[in-house]
Design goal:
With 299 residues, the chain is an alpha+beta fold. It is 36% helix and 23% strand. The chain is rod-shaped.
Length: 299
């Protein structure tokens, strides 16, 4: 009986330990699966980030953007009107100064003639000056009309102050202030899209141009395109997406296009353009690209 009991107890112990091992293995397997799943989720979340891609950079003529071309044409006409008005005012001012110089010349000649006439004695008046030996007031003898000359000079101001001429702009001109800087002859178009797995927000970037080849004219640029620095022969242009929140979705149909009007200093050869685009969610890009300075319409 005791032997049977010992064998039964040993068998029971073996079964219990076996079940405990199976349970431990099962829970270990579940823990391993959970860890793998968490790692997979972490990897998937890590991969769900935006990936910005530069889809195109081109130097295009103004006619490729009718609105920009119209704006530049209106500004050119305004500058011509302003220059014409200034030329007329300069001509009128030169004529006025010429008349003033001629008048002053005539007055100087008149004063010289009066001075020559009054430079001698009128001996006929010495008879009425007094008795011999009496002091004579010689100022009564000279016929110099100095008092009249002094009065005329005092009545005429030496300097004439005029208000600066006001520049009048046509009422149809779209800008609030006159622009008198360089006019662009082309523009740089940069397109960016998102090939990642998540949306990018607050997309920003910058371009660095070689000033010996291209001069940016941000006066005609769209909102979000600004010239922020000029360092010697280099210009830095800041780009900010204007969509809601600067958002760029991971879609083939969604992209951001920036346009910077420029004035070409050379019309042949190539120029190097540095760029960078970033977002707080990551996926930024940067690089250098070469652009041909001769436009397609000029080839």
């Amino acid at each position: 009986m005791d032997g049977v009991t010992v064998e039964v107890l040993a068998l029971l112990a073996t079964v219990v330990f076996g079940l405990a091992g199976v349970a431990a293995a099962y829970y270990g397997y579940k823990s391993f699966r959970a860890s793998c799943e968490q790692l997979e989720i972490a990897r998937e979340q890590a991969s769900r980030v935006p990936r910005l891609v530069l889809t195109g950079v081109a130097l295009l003529p103004l006619l490729a953007d009718p609105e920009l071309e119209k704006d530049v044409a209106e500004t050119r006409e305004l500058l011509q009107e302003i220059e014409k008005e200034r030329a007329e005012k300069r001509r009128a001012e030169e004529e006025r100064l010429a008349r003033e110089r001629e008048r002053e010349k005539r007055e100087r000649e008149e004063r010289r003639r009066e001075e020559r006439r009054s430079s001698g004695f009128d001996l006929s008046k010495l008879r009425d000056m007094g008795e011999p030996g009496e002091q004579v007031d010689l100022s009564r003898v000279f016929q110099a009309p100095w008092e009249n000359i002094t009065e005329r000079l005092a009545a005429r101001p030496m300097f004439e102050i005029r208000e600066p001429a006001e520049i009048r702009m046509p009422s149809s001109y779209p800008k609030s202030e006159p622009y008198e800087g360089p006019l662009p002859d082309s523009f740089i178009e940069v397109a960016v899209k998102n090939e990642g797995c998540a949306a990018a927000y607050e997309v920003t970037g910058w371009l660095e141009l070689d000033g010996s080849d291209l001069e940016p004219v941000d006066y005609f640029a769209d909102r979000g395109v600004d010239l922020v620095a000029e360092n010697g022969d280099a210009y830095k242009v800041e780009l900010r997406a204007q969509q809601e929140g600067g958002r760029l979705l991971p879609s083939e149909n969604d992209r951001i296009v920036f346009r910077m009007p420029v004035l070409r200093r050379r019309t042949n050869g190539t120029t190097r353009l540095r760029y960078e685009f970033t977002s707080p969610q990551g996926g930024g890009i940067e690089g250098i690209i070469e652009l041909a300075l001769d436009l397609a319409e000029e080839r």
